[in-house]
């Protein structure tokens, strides 16, 4: 599921009410966490971008950690993979992995998780809101023997594409190499999905 991330503008907030303020803070937080990760994100910047005082973060969310938790909550939906054949699922997963080539305007919880991995507070939120739920969701779609392990390996491979392409900047994994990488990813994901089957 893609959530469009853009810097909210104060003019977007015509009237101050709790629902509008809370949504403005969430939108600003998505943008800031995507850009800077958990440790680098500034609550003052988030509040300023939302057009309000930083004290409102504590009022509506209680803390930076709980704001991060709210941002990461319910941000994963792999439902589009349900009902696909193995070949179709592999193709969709390869597309997701290859899309991890650059920073985009859309909120990407995997990117936020990677950028936030240095924080113990953020790691706990990521594990509870993203890691384990994603594995569980994908495992339920894959089904069968060792479904959780297969889901974990697949999701690690996908997040590894971001690390290799964006964090490390490996030329061998650059977007221009997609046509070479695609069959490799296809073979790897097919092997993972088919492992343990007779």
Unreliable stretches (pLDDT < 50, length at least 5) are 10-14
Given the helix and strand composition, which structural class is it? Answer: mainly alpha
Put simply, the count of helices is 9
Q: Span between N and C termini? A: 33 Å
Query: What is the share of helical residues?
Result: 55-70%
How many strands, what sense, and barrel or not for the largest sheet? Answer: 2 strands, antiparallel
Shape: elongated
Overall pLDDT metric: 86
Backbone CA Rg: 18 Å
Strand fraction:
under 5%
Element-by-element helix/strand order = EHHHHHEHHHH
What is the spatial order of strands in the main beta sheet?
A: 1-2
Number of domains: 2
Task: Let me know the number of strands.
Answer: 2
Task: Describe it.
The chain is elongated, with a radius of gyration of 18 Å. The protein has a two-stranded antiparallel sheet with strand order 1-2. It starts with a strand and ends with a helix. The chain is mainly α and 198 residues long. The chain contains nine helices and two strands. It has helices at 18-40, 43-50, 55-61, 64-72, 86-98, 109-115, 120-142, 147-167, 178-194, and strands at residues 3-4, 106-107. The protein is 65% helix and 2% strand. It folds into two domains: 3-72, Arc Repressor Mutant, subunit A; 79-194, no CATH class.
